[in-house]
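Subject: mismatched residue count in predicted assembly?

I count 442 residues in my input, but I want to confirm that the predicted structure covers every chain. Input:
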Amino acid sequence: MSPQALVFDAYGTLYDVHSVIQRCDQLWPGKGTALSQLWRTKQLEYTWQRTLMRRYASFSQITREALEYCCEALKLPLDAAKAEALWQQYLRLSPYPDVPGALHKLAGRKMAILTNGSPDMIDPLVRHCGMEKTFDAVLSADALRTFKIAPQVYQFAVDQLGVAPSGIGFVSSNCWDALGAKNFGFKVWWINRQDAPVDRLDARPDGILAGLGELPARLAS
Amino acid sequence: MSPQALVFDAYGTLYDVHSVIQRCDQLWPGKGTALSQLWRTKQLEYTWQRTLMRRYASFSQITREALEYCCEALKLPLDAAKAEALWQQYLRLSPYPDVPGALHKLAGRKMAILTNGSPDMIDPLVRHCGMEKTFDAVLSADALRTFKIAPQVYQFAVDQLGVAPSGIGFVSSNCWDALGAKNFGFKVWWINRQDAPVDRLDARPDGILAGLGELPARLAS
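Triage response: the counts match. Full output below for your records.
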């Protein structure tokens, strides 16, 4: 049965967080890939660690602080101008190549973004990608001052969209996010672009896709 | 002022989680380091993610499940015998070389371990290392069915030892753990064996040491 609403994770699912690599490489030749990977790792760790220690900070603050940490770890000199240049890049991430076409095919359904990203970063990014009209809502966990995969973040989508958990199809390429949503009660597709194993977190996704481009056909079948 | 009690993290601080590398290399030649590093990374991620999603599992279960994931990710065939061999190795981790000498010099103080490790794994490890009499208490976050760096884990040490937070000196080589403890109110030494930057988590350790061997002199000064 086709879900009443589709809810998408943003960073890593619709938008490629590693599309900052080229800009990183311009600033520090040859270091772009290592910096981008560590930046993403630390960004996520800080969301989990701050939640546990009860010291919430917005995803934008965490993202900037993670960049500081990573540049220090990799011994890449970071000044205010470089930090701002990379931050501006983060507001202009590229969608994955198959995303615009897939979203176009899914148009007409109720669709939303549910992201850790605070409004000061997700709203400019959605606008930059020309997707303001694609989604009925852009929902940020920042409204609750917590992060996925806390169950209340998924409940927030239920409340805001007015659709029961069983009527929501959730799409994420972050396996832990997909399993958090499954554990909450959504129907879940995990976009497994890297051919990774399923995380061991007491749940399995309902479907595993190699890219978002497969979703329209999967929903139609 | 010298603290009334010293509380030590276990895994990565007293005991070298990467002392499994040799055994891993015996099972899968050349893959020991990669497996051990990913195993530790996933083990920690699962503690944070399970806490957020409110699906507690013991550190021993998480450690075994993380191993399964990592072997699948690295395409290393894991059967029950290999899993058991590595699990047994985890119960016999080596202390870091400077740990026994440092603990010997610190003897006479009130000392405890505060660990994520469930009793079924930390107790055999402490016995294997002949440290049963070194510590006044071996405290596991498992008693609370949560993980560091949730503040209630540090409170558990306060309650069990009968020492106020300001009287506890906490020692960890996991920076996030050190900062969680600092945020809670302990005096904190971070053992920074890798010369890493301080994590950006709204706190700074009181002292940064290159190894546990430096602690006795630091406390005496």
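The interface with chain A takes residues 45-46, 48-55, 57, 65-66, 68-69, 72-73, 147-151, 176, 179-180, 183, 196-197, 199-202 of chain B (CB under 8 Å). Marking this ticket as 'not a bug'.
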